[in-house]
Amino acid sequence: MNAADSRFPVSERSNGALAARVRGSVHVIGAGLLGASVGLGLRERGVDVTLEDLSPTTVALAADYGAGRVRTSEDPEPTLVVVATPPDVTADVVERALAQYPAAVVTDVASVKLAPYLELVRRGVDLTNYVGSHPMAGRERGGAIMARADLFVARPWVVCRDHETPAEALAIVEAVALDLGATLIEMTPEEHDRSVGLVSHLPQVVSSLLAARLIPATEQAIGLAGAGLRDTTRVASSDPELWVQILGANRGPVVELLDAFARDLSGFADALRDPAQAGARRTIADLLSAGNNGVARIPGKHGSSERFTSITVLIDDTPGQLGRLLTELGELGINMEDLRLEHSPGAQIGFAEIAMLPEVAERAVTDLVERGWRTL
């Protein structure tokens, strides 16, 4: 790698702050949630970001939020092009970007990697300067209005390469991911699609189907909903149109996972129909226990598999109470690993479920009670 080339990643300090690893400009095509978040994060590092979107309103809104500026014909060729468009047009936009900016490296952040890659190969596109990638970050609602500069912080960012990917091109994509605070992971497109099918696409389908069962329920029944239902249906509010594209592009791995899930569900239902039959209770227990073992593998804070203990604190549903609780936890030296809030229907009270290391949980409860807090 030629260190004198201004396109290549650098690591230096400027005015006491770490400068961006990529010099030159970054052009973002697609100014929705991911594209605008990339722009916001890089702008914070002093990177010149230009924006493009089929919708003039969308690109203008992203620019107003500070994600970059609308690209003009006078702008020089960018160092990197980030394609942040829906999966069904990713291959088209990548192909156009490679042709329009022949000296730039092009990456895309689509949630499916194999289908766009195979389509580009089928078309005979020169992929020397293309590196597929995917940040494992997002929100239930999309659009530039929901974008955040810290959206990618501490989140995995998968980079897909093959043996023909130049080191320089790979380094530029990795540098942007690092600038945005992400954790780099290398995978093949096949490995990526199988993995996200399990940890993202299957949960989306299960969550949506579960939430759909609430439609015919009575208001009285819905009023009993607690944290368990909210946890398992949280992602069900995602954009159906986008997910039709994602699931269609990754249908092979997702169908395999759904078939396996259906077999487990059928076996569980068969056992539960007659719990008195021989082996039925063991089947139920084994499947539930398998769930315990599976959830224990989900990475915790900072990518570790450490499990945390949760305590629940009752808080009055009035302004300032949550802030006071968090302030007092800080005064007590309690590091909060996670926080979930729940309101009690019809009552002016809320529940703050706080995850922390097991060794500090007992002390936290004792100290909070001494300060007048109620715990469950």
UniProtKB/TrEMBL annotation:
Pathway: Amino-acid biosynthesis; L-tyrosine biosynthesis; (4-hydroxyphenyl)pyruvate from prephenate (NAD(+) route): step 1/1. InterPro entries: 6-PGluconate_DH-like_C_sf (IPR008927), ACT-like_dom_sf (IPR045865), ACT_dom (IPR002912), NAD(P)-bd_dom_sf (IPR036291), PDH_C (IPR046825), PDH_N (IPR046826), Preph/Arog_dehydrog (IPR050812), Prephen_DH (IPR003099). GO terms for molecular function: prephenate dehydrogenase (NAD+) activity. Residues 310-376 form the ACT domain. Keywords: Amino-acid biosynthesis, Aromatic amino acid biosynthesis, NAD, Oxidoreductase, Tyrosine biosynthesis. Gene3D superfamilies: 6-phosphogluconate dehydrogenase C-terminal like domain, NAD(P)-binding Rossmann-like Domain. It comes from the Bacteria. Belongs to the prephenate/arogenate dehydrogenase family. This is Prephenate dehydrogenase. Residues 24-306 form the Prephenate/arogenate dehydrogenase domain. NCBIfam families: PRK06545.2-3 (NF005111), PRK06545.2-4 (NF005112). It catalyses: prephenate + NAD(+) = 3-(4-hydroxyphenyl)pyruvate + CO2 + NADH. Its EC number is 1.3.1.12. SUPFAM superfamilies: 6-phosphogluconate dehydrogenase C-terminal domain-like, ACT-like, NAD(P)-binding Rossmann-fold domains. Transmembrane segments: none annotated.
